[in-house]
Write the structure tokens for this entry.
Amino acid sequence: MRVYNTASRSVEDFTPINEDRVSLYTCGPTVYDYAQIGNLRAFVFDDTLRRVLSASGFRVKHVMNITDVGHLSSDEDEGEDKLEKGASRENKSVWQVAEFYIEAFLKDAESLNILKPNGYHGPHGVYARATDFIDDQIKLIQILVEKGYAYQTEQAIYFDVSKLSDYGKLTGQKLADKEIGVRSEVITDSDKRNPQDFGLWFFTIGRFENHDMRWPSPWGDGFPGWHLECSAIIHSVLGEPIDIHTGGVDHIGTHHTNEIAQTEAVFDTKLANYWLHNEHLLVDGQKMSKSKNNFYTLYDFAMQGITNLSKVPLRLVIFFGFISAFLSFVAGMFYLIYKLVFWYSFSVGLAPVVLGLFFLGSVQLVALGIIGEYIGSIHTLVLRRPLVTEKERINC
Ligand SMILES: [Zn+2]
């Protein structure tokens, strides 16, 4: 079996640490809203990988987390807490919001025929919830503080990225390059040593004063940063290094980079041997995202009466959702070539060639249009109606 490993930026033969066993970890959803199908695609990708591994004779131990605390609106730990935002939007407690959207995610996963993780059984089931690993996360922070990788400000405890000479190696990006991106964010803690330093523990003071989710720690009441949970869960449940770590390409630059930094700083060992990432789902050539408001959920499909679509086609639509953008591009290129040849033939008086090309071009464009619009295009599948309103979705 051969896989594309983000860490080496190349296709490699897959060789697990133990001959026929594979440890697989997936970054799961943050449960503050319905998962859009772009997020669900990551889990379909992951599930397909797991089934291929099993069919190839490997015994797969699969663990997935659920982020129910600590994920701020910017991956660089700035902005609001996503769950708190969901709670004020819906006039519920953060705990209620987490429970509600965990249930919604479980239903989505079931409707896509996604296998449940089989490597963990905890107090809340088979998905490893971040809030069930608070003590494990605190232990990691203690080691990071002792080893000099973490420092405390009035607002938080941060990981000092300048202490790792190879920080950012997953992207191949130099720290100085990453700095440019981070500088555009609003840095709310002026005591941070480096703009890229990320939060390990946020104190429930200042902007987080009314934060409902809080736990005692040796440094004061607060809650863990988002990146820490995956390092803690992997250490507690699987042990590092694991064979395969998966996630979306949007995790590479910050979340997975920070997971690697924490684990390597604490345990002096690799976190994972293979890093496999799924691409974004495209809608009319653009990344599907909540910030662009061009996203769909499985609920949107249901609102269109697409409730009897069986699990397999639904998975295929999500898995191959990029196809409409690709076909649009191919159709555009063919059309350009066709026009150039058409005008050239016309100018040199080749009327039969002109007519022939006109016919062939029409057939080809219609064929590509049909394939692109009716097989690949999520946008068309949802019948080009306005997105359901926030209110409709919440009342679902
Ligand atoms: Zn993660």
Observations:
- Residues 180-186, 373-396 have pLDDT under 50 and may be disordered.
- The radius of gyration is 24 Å.
- The CA atoms of residues 339 and 391 lie 48 Å apart.
- The first strand starts at residue 2 and ends at 5.
